[in-house]
Amino acid sequence: MPSQTTLYEEMSILSAQMVDAARTKDWDRLIALEHDVAALRAMLKNDDNNALSESALESKTRLIQRILDDDAEVRRHTEPWMERLRHFLDGAATKRRGDRIVETAV
């Protein structure tokens, strides 16, 4: 199994790629990268900070901060799209309800 630091480095690389995918609105690539990150995260399930040296812990902290920054950037690009999707779906649901009311009234 790769070291914790290696796993966090890989997650950081993928999170940077996720930012690029979000910026270019490449949703399929973004989803695939999210799955890759989830697989790495699962490998960190038994993360034990006690086993890390001071320098490895500092490196891990920097990598996690970078991953969190990337996550915020991805959200900045995806949340407007999600909001438009939510409005679209709400509109479709309202139309279906209206159609059902008209059908029952006829």
Explain what the structure shows.
The chain is mainly α. It has one domain (4-78): Methane Monooxygenase Hydroxylase, Chain G, domain 1 (Up-down Bundle), CATH 1.20.58.380. The protein has three helices and no strands. Helix 1 (4-23) crosses helix 3. The radius of gyration is 21 Å and the shape is elongated. The model has no long low-confidence stretch (mean pLDDT 86).
Could you name the CATH class? Mainly Alpha
Gyration radius over CA: 21 Å
Order of secondary-structure elements: HHH
Q: Average pLDDT across residues? A: 86
Provide the structure class: mainly alpha
Query: How many separate structural domains?
Result: 1
Number of strands: 0
> What are the segments in which pLDDT stays under 50 over at least 5 consecutive residues?
none
Give the overall shape, derived from the CA principal axes. elongated
First and last CA, distance? 66 Å
Strand content: under 5%
CATH fold topology: Methane Monooxygenase Hydroxylase, Chain G, domain 1
Can I get a quick summary?
With about 110 residues, the chain is mostly helical. It is about 85% helix and about 0% strand.
